[in-house]
TrEMBL record:
<keyword id="KW-0479">Metal-binding</keyword>
<dbReference type="Pfam" id="PF08768">
    <property type="entry name" value="THAP4_heme-bd"/>
</dbReference>
<keyword id="KW-0413">Isomerase</keyword>
<comment type="similarity">
    <text>Belongs to the nitrobindin family.</text>
</comment>
<feature type="domain" description="THAP4-like heme-binding">
    <location>
        <begin position="12"/>
        <end position="196"/>
    </location>
</feature>
<comment type="function">
    <text>Heme-binding protein able to scavenge peroxynitrite and to protect free L-tyrosine against peroxynitrite-mediated nitration, by acting as a peroxynitrite isomerase that converts peroxynitrite to nitrate. Therefore, this protein likely plays a role in peroxynitrite sensing and in the detoxification of reactive nitrogen and oxygen species (RNS and ROS, respectively). Is able to bind nitric oxide (NO) in vitro, but may act as a sensor of peroxynitrite levels in vivo.</text>
</comment>
<protein>
    <recommendedName>
        <fullName>Peroxynitrite isomerase</fullName>
        <ecNumber>5.99.-.-</ecNumber>
    </recommendedName>
</protein>
<dbReference type="InterPro" id="IPR012674">
    <property type="entry name" value="Calycin"/>
</dbReference>
<comment type="pathway">
    <text>Nitrogen metabolism.</text>
</comment>
<dbReference type="InterPro" id="IPR045165">
    <property type="entry name" value="Nitrobindin"/>
</dbReference>
<feature type="binding site" description="axial binding residue">
    <location>
        <position position="189"/>
    </location>
    <ligand>
        <name>heme b</name>
    </ligand>
</feature>
<feature type="short sequence motif" description="GXWXGXG">
    <location>
        <begin position="21"/>
        <end position="27"/>
    </location>
</feature>
<dbReference type="InterPro" id="IPR014878">
    <property type="entry name" value="THAP4-like_heme-bd"/>
</dbReference>
<keyword id="KW-0408">Iron</keyword>
<feature type="binding site">
    <location>
        <position position="157"/>
    </location>
    <ligand>
        <name>heme b</name>
    </ligand>
</feature>
<keyword id="KW-0349">Heme</keyword>
<dbReference type="InterPro" id="IPR022939">
    <property type="entry name" value="Nb(III)_bact/plant"/>
</dbReference>
Length: 204
């Protein structure tokens, strides 16, 4: 599906703009070996008018033909550039920010660019009492994230750290997720290739 950059984005969302929309497709758990299970996934990155993208992911276990068997998991969260929060920013909670965005132009945003890309953060909440804070980089159509902090409820399963990578290749969103469940070794957790099926569903 052809994608046109929205013309009314908050300036600091421009580096993240290629993610906006709803993506669907198939993936594999683990390394994707013959015995590893299949899943189907829908991922949405949505601009709702703030200096962040709302993120939601829903996944179902499937058979090899893509027939859904049962719900696998869901995630929700927010992605944004990683920068100091100023008095003009909204929050915490429902404290309103200034009418005008803190970064008002492409030049303002470009000042945050490093030699490796823009620094970003992603806050992702999983079922089962796990909340992740990722820091990373977005460099054109590539994202690299690694957990900076984890919050687990007292009854949550072991989960120590993770990394996620995303890339736009020939119009498809490829991603991989590696996880450590209690030691220093990260192991392949899941990966998928998704196609954009809808543009932004903004509520502005």
């Amino acid at each position: 599906m052809a994608f046109e950059l929205p013309t009314d984005l908050t300036p600091e969302l421009v580096p993240l703009a290629w993610l906006i929309g709803t993506w669907e497709g198939m993936g594999r758990l683990g390394e994707g070996e013959a015995e590893d299970e299949y899943f189907w996934q829908r991922v949405t990155f949505r601009d709702i008018g703030g200096p962040y993208l709302e993120y939601r992911s829903e996944s179902w276990l499937t058979d090899a033909e893509g027939n859904k068997l049962r719900v696998l998991t869901a995630e929700t969260g927010f992605w944004s550039l990683d920068r100091e929060q100023l008095e003009a920013d909204a929050g915490p909670g429902m404290i309103p920010g200034d009418v005008f965005p803190v970064l008002r132009s492409a030049d303002d945003v470009q000042k945050l660019h490093t030699k490796d890309g823009f620094k970003i953060q992603a806050h992702i909440v999983q079922p089962g009492g796990i909340s992740e804070l990722y820091y990373g980089l977005i460099d054109g159509p590539r994202v690299q994230l690694a957990t900076e902090g984890l919050l687990r409820s007292k009854n949550a399963k072991q989960y120590a750290s993770s990394t996620r990578i995303y890339g736009l290749v020939n119009g498809e969103l490829f991603w991989r997720w590696d996880v450590s469940q209690g030691n220093l070794e990260l192991k392949a957790h899941a990966s998928a290739a998704l196609q954009r099926v809808a543009a932004n569903e903004a509520t502005k």
